[in-house]
Write a structure and sequence with these properties.
Chain lengths: 276, 273
């Protein structure tokens, strides 16, 4: 296999207009991130800044490293090298005047609660009701009282359009409903960044809309969101930046409408020709 | 096919009824004899107690086996291999004779003069040795069953827990153990039924279980076969009775499949003010 060469950074780093800080809560900063699984280097050189309140859609062919990037940002995968700062903190590490050392487990867990993750397969806990799925993190990790957690869970269920479904087990809910409970479960931890890993790919087409509506509402409220998806409509309407990834690199980044209509890089053109 | 089966059944029934050496009257007489019932009772409570200890211990070993800390994991692997890799009968005799190895057991704080010595022979009777031996052996098997249950929990479930910031202990308690139950319970039920029969081994230690009590009788009366049939009838009856609660517990843990059974729960949640 011929060695892939890194794309030359021809463009100025893209900054969506009218957004918040690029450091501090709700931001993601990535420099020279490398991640391999054995001999297979999945992320080769990732450099990107996500501003507070930015809605960034990641697209790219399967195996391009989109999911792995999200999993790294959520701390589910350990990065091999590079800098990964989420919410203004180095993920899993702390830097002081003289040292750069790993965080304690407790601190790593605290960082994780501030990052929400929504999985393609929902991953709701099947042994708990919808309400319990949403309260378990609050009572166990955040140590809120049971009554407060339940109250919050009901509010969140209402927010995702599932009022009155609290006593249902995941198996009694449709895929779209399960995914909305999963979003509520993540939101219950009060995250400042939300990651969506192909949130609608496992859903029947007629159920996709409800989930996207919830995500749109979340975006309107100013949540920082990173979304890998094949829903180009969502990218066009809701996202304020679009990242095209291929072979472990970020190939192109820009305004979603512009990139989708007029891609600059040949690799992006090639991909979009296939999917649009 | 029907005919063949019928002929075989009829043949067995014929010989059971007509062969006088079965001594059915003797069997009927001893089936509810006080000695036999006492032995049966010992067999039952020993089975239950051993399974209880073995399940708790097995869960502990399985948790250790799944530990991220290497020495803990190695300890658990050694335990499982030693106790599964040697015959349970040998283990029982070993525990019975443990006094030969450790004549005194010292209770107290290690390496300090605090505490006192106890005579091992007085402490570990035949029954205690039987319970220790069977429990420790069974715990190794239970640990492997529980581990199988742990492994049946999809990886995504643990990632969801990680993502919420749960610690290893929280994931174990809230995600892994409850979700492993539907896999572990039926297997434990089978182990319970096996254990009922395995307890017959303790008769070699002179513990008066069901088998030992019928042995005592036929040593006196020489009615070996009828007495063994008495024991078999009781073993059979209890195993059949034991398989019933297993299905109940299974249904209890299978909450997540309720929708599949077409019985959605009524929505009783009160909307908040």
């Amino acid at each position: 296999m011929p060695e892939q060469s890194a794309p030359t950074p021809s463009m100025e780093p893209f900054r969506p207009a009218g957004l918040g800080d690029t450091d501090g809560p709700g931001t993601v900063q990535i420099r020279k991130l490398v991640k391999s699984f054995g001999a297979n280097t999945v992320l080769k050189d990732i450099n990107v800044d996500i501003a507070a309140g930015e809605v960034c859609v990641l697209i790219g062919p399967s195996g391009s490293g989109k999911s792995t990037l999200l999993r790294c940002i959520d701390g589910l995968e350990q990065i091999d090298s590079g800098v990964l700062r989420v919410n203004g903190e180095d993920l899993g590490y702390i830097e002081d005047a003289t040292h750069y050392r790993p965080l304690s487990r407790t601190d790593r867990r605290r960082q994780r609660t501030q990052i929400g993750m929504v999985f393609q397969q929902f991953n709701l806990f099947p042994n708990m009701t919808a309400l319990e799925n949403i309260t378990v993190g609050q009572t166990l990790v955040k140590r809120t009282t049971r009554a407060q957690a339940k109250q919050r869970a009901r509010e969140l269920l209402t927010r995702v359009g599932l009022e009155g479904h609290g006593n249902h087990y995941p198996a009694q809910l449709s895929g779209g409903q399960q995914q909305r409970v999963a979003i509520a479960r993540s939101l219950a931890m009060d995250p400042q960044v939300m990651l969506f890993d192909e949130p609608t790919s496992a859903l029947d087409p007629e159920l996709v809309g409800d989930v996207l509506d919830v995500m749109r509402q979340l975006a309107d409220e100013g949540m920082t969101m990173l979304v890998t998806t094949h829903e180009m409509g969502f990218a066009r309407e809701v996202a304020n930046s679009l990242l095209f990834m291929a072979d472990g690199y970020i190939v192109e980044r820009g305004d979603p409408r512009e990139v989708l209509a007029n891609p600059q890089e040949p690799r992006t053109q090639q991909f979009l020709k296939k999917v649009l | 096919m029907w005919v063949v089966c019928l002929i075989i059944t009829a043949g067995i029934a014929y010989t059971l009824i007509t062969n006088p050496r079965y001594h059915w009257s003797t069997i009927r007489h001893y089936l509810t004899a006080a000695t036999v019932l006492k032995g049966l009772w010992l067999t039952i409570w020993m089975t239950v107690l051993v399974m209880l200890i073995a399940t708790i211990l097995g869960l502990l070993v399985a948790v250790m086996r799944a530990s991220k800390i290497l020495p803990v994991r190695i300890l658990a692997i050694c335990y499982i291999n030693v106790f599964r890799g040697t015959p349970v009968l040998v283990q029982l005799i070993l525990w019975f004779n443990i006094a030969a190895l450790y004549p005194h057991i010292r209770l107290g704080i290690p390496f300090t003069p605090v505490g006192g010595n106890l005579n091992t022979n007085a402490l570990i009777s035949a029954t205690t040795a039987a319970i220790i031996g069977l429990s420790l052996n069974e715990a190794a098997y239970m640990a492997e069953i529980v581990r199988g249950g742990f492994n049946s929990v999809p990886k995504g479930q643990l990632e969801a827990g990680d993502s919420l910031g749960m610690s290893e202990a929280m994931k174990m308690r809230k995600i892994i153990i409850p979700q492993a139950m539907p896999t572990v319970i039926p297997a434990t039920g089978n182990q319970l039924i096996s254990m009922l029969k395995e307890t017959s081994l303790v008769s070699v230690l002179g513990v008066a279980d069901l088998l030992a009590s019928v042995q005592l009788i036929y040593a006196r009366t020489y009615e070996t076969i009828p007495m063994l049939i008495v024991a078999c009838i009781w073993y059979l009856v209890v195993s059949i009775l034991l398989s019933y609660p297993q299905s109940k517990i299974e249904a209890h843990y299978d909450k997540s499949s309720r929708a599949i059974l077409g019985k959605p729960l009524p929505t009783v949640e009160v909307p908040h003010a």
